[in-house]
Structure formats: C-alpha cells, structure tokens
C-alpha cells in the first residue's frame, strides 16, 4: 500500500461497536435461547436489517438490497466434534451480495443457532439448527434470519501529480477514498493513451495498491514513452463491507499532456571548410537528421554552396566530412545547422551569424 494521507471515516457504520459483544462465529454457531430477531441479537447496530427465510428452502431471497442464495441439503457426513449421528440432517449453504452479513440466526427446535461475523461475511456452508443434546441430531430448519447492514458506498477522488510534462519524466496518480466502512481490497490505476480519447484501447500502464481504510493511495510512477495526451482511471474493487467505486475516462485532473523533449544544439566553427555541432537532451531519438548548410555570404541567403546530412541516433557531436568545398568569392561564409527532430524530440536550428568564417585566401576554383 502506498498511502498519501488519511481521512476520517466519514460514514463508519457502528457495526463493530454494536457487534463487539456478540460471540465470534464457530463451526457450529452459538446457541441462543428462544426465537430471536436480528434487532435482539445485534442491539445498537445502525441501519441493521433482516432478511428472513421461512420456511427454509433452496432459492434466492432478498429485500431489494441484500440478495441471498440459499441451498438446503442433507449433511453428507457426521460432525466429528458432536456425539450422535448427523448424517442426512438438514443443513444449508448461502452466498450473499449487496450487504454486510453480520450474523445468521438459524431457528430449529426450541432455540436459535447464531453464526456471528463482527467483521462481516458473504458466505457460509453447512449451517444448521442447534444440536439436540438428547439424540445428537440437528433439528429440521424452522426459519433463517440474515442480519445485515447495507454496504457502504465509498467515494473516490483522483489527481495526477502533473498535468503536463516533457517526455522521459515520471507521473503518478493519487486516489482518495472516503465515506467507506473500513475499506480493504485494492485500487487499480490504469493509464490509456496516447490520444485514446475514450479509454477503449488496452491500458499502457497498470498498478494495483492495497487499501487499508479511508485514505489517499498513490500509484507507482509511470514514464510515458510517446508524446500525446494520457488519461488515468482509478478503480476501487470493493470488499465485503463496501461497494466498488471508480473514476471515469476524462475525469477532471486525470489527464497528462506529454510534450516532446527540447534538445540543446550548440555549433562551433571547425577548421574551414568543416563544421561541428553538439546535440544534448534528446530522448530516445529515432530517424532524425542533422543538416549542415554552408552559405557563401554573411546573410545565409540564396542557395547553400554545400549541404551535408547525418542521421541522429543519440546525443553527441556531429562533424562534416567534406574538405573540398569550393566557394565562388572571398569574404565571409556562414554555416547553419538544423536538427529535424522526430516523434519524441523537437527540432532545433542555429542562427545565421552563429558561425561565420572570414576567408583571407583566394577562393578555390577562381
């Protein structure tokens, strides 16, 4: 987990406070005398609700918030920690969605078997009514009550560390969760782009962090390898107590504009008639060229009297190789050096006048 900061639990259900006195779930539950309602079994729990299944039968039950799939079946083998023969006795499994099940009250015979889950649960197997101590069997199921609270609906807010950067630099995203009920699970950060305006393509970067409460969580750094606009989406997957929460493509503060690198071009007059240039600050150059042009005047006008091009594959020095340049007049000659740029790098050009050489000899070819 990479937490950027904590927030108070804005919507912490009083679940844990209300359940703290209830016994923890055991393999056989805890026998409670009589026929108890959820409000009696979990007093003081805010927003406590009950889904009652009577008579118990296989099927799906709910109240519009909690949905419980119940499967009633005979027990396949005896329970080894009980005397007697329970094989074939009536038990059930369940799987719940949409709420936090704090306990399952199973009525059969004169008393209730309570399976208590203070931290919440969503499933159980081979639940049964209280053991009949006289014959060592589980009575047939009379009714089942699922005591639950609705899942919290946490909110998520996201913010990239930089809205704009030069290619080669890192960027992170921070997602802040609040109004969750002690959220756990994970947040997954995904980056789309460049220029995937609907986030419909495959993510170019993903990172998953562990959630431990309402707080801010920051992704690992992502270093874009191409220019353009990148879009982040952060998704909290939810857990037994909390619904999922997700950002959307093009959310505010979730776009990063990546610009080309701006190289530094320096030129130095070399022993005439050659020239040299130095490029620094390139990011993974590919396919660009350095072009040297020699003009037979100090204004860099007209057609150049010499041109040479070299491919750029990295930072470094580039020098012309032709030593037999002919000029038509004496006086001043000027070099201009141009770097074309490429997909990741801006172009650059030297200024006329940066490199001028005054000739003091009779021009070749005169």
> pLDDT below 50 for ≥5 consecutive residues: which ranges?
4-26
Number of domains: 3
SS field, number of helical segments = 2
Q: Radius of gyration in whole Å, from Cα? A: 37 Å
Cα-to-Cα separation, first versus last residue: 77 Å
Gross geometry:
rod-shaped
Tell me the total number of β-strands: 27
Keywords: Signal
InterPro entries: Ig-like_fold
Signal peptide: 1-27
What features would you highlight for this structure?
single chain, 366 residues, mainly beta, Immunoglobulin-like, 3 domains, six-stranded mixed beta sheet, five-stranded antiparallel beta sheet, 2 helices, rod-shaped, signal, Ig-like_fold
Describe the structure in your own words:
The chain is mostly beta strands and 366 residues long. The protein folds into three domains: 12-150, no CATH class; 155-259, Immunoglobulin-like, CATH 2.60.40.3930; 264-358, Immunoglobulin-like. It is built from two helices and 27 strands. Strands 12, 14, 15, 17, 18 and 19 form a six-stranded mixed beta sheet that branches. A five-stranded antiparallel beta sheet has the order 2-8-7-10-3. The radius of gyration is 37 Å and the shape is rod-shaped.
């Amino acid at each position: 987990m990479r937490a950027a900061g904590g927030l108070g639990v804005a919507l912490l259900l009083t679940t844990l406070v209300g359940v703290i006195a209830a016994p923890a779930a055991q393999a056989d539950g805890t026998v409670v005398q009589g026929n108890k309602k959820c409000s009696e079994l979990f007093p003081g729990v805010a927003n406590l609700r009950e889904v009652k299944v009577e008579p118990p039968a296989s099927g799906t039950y709910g109240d519009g918030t909690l949905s419980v799939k119940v499967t009633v079946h005979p027990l396949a083998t005896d329970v080894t920690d009980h005397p007697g023969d329970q094989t074939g006795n009536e038990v059930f499994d369940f799987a719940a969605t949409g709420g936090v099940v704090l306990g399952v009250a199973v009525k059969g015979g004169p008393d209730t078997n309570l399976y208590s889950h203070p931290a919440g649960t969503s499933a159980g197997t081979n639940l049964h009514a209280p053991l009949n101590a006289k014959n060592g069997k589980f009575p047939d199921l009379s009714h089942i009550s699922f005591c639950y609270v609705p899942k919290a609906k946490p909110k998520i807010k996201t913010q990239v560390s930089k809205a704009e950067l030069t290619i080669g630099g890192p960027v992170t995203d921070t997602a802040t969760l609040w109004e969750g009920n002690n959220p756990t699970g994970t947040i997954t950060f995904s980056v789309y782009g460049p220029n995937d305006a609907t986030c419909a393509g495959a993510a170019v970067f993903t990172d998953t962090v562990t959630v431990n409460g309402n707080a801010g969580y920051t992704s690992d750094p992502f270093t874009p390898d191409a220019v353009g606009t990148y879009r982040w989406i952060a998704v909290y997957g939810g857990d037994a107590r909390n619904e999922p929460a997700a950002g959307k493509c093009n959310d505010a503060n979730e776009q990063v504009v990546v610009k080309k690198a701006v190289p530094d071009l320096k030129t130095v007059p070399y022993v005439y008639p050659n020239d040299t240039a130095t490029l620094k600050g390139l990011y993974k150059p590919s396919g660009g060229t350095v072009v040297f042009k020699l003009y037979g005047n100090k204004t860099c006008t007209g057609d150049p009297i010499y041109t040479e091009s070299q491919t750029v594959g990295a930072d470094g020095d580039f020098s012309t190789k032709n030593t037999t340049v002919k000029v038509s007049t004496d006086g001043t000659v000027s070099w201009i050096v141009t770097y074309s740029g490429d997909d990741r790098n801006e172009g650059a050009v030297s200024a006329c006048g940066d490199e001028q050489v005054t000739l003091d000899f009779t021009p070749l070819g005169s």
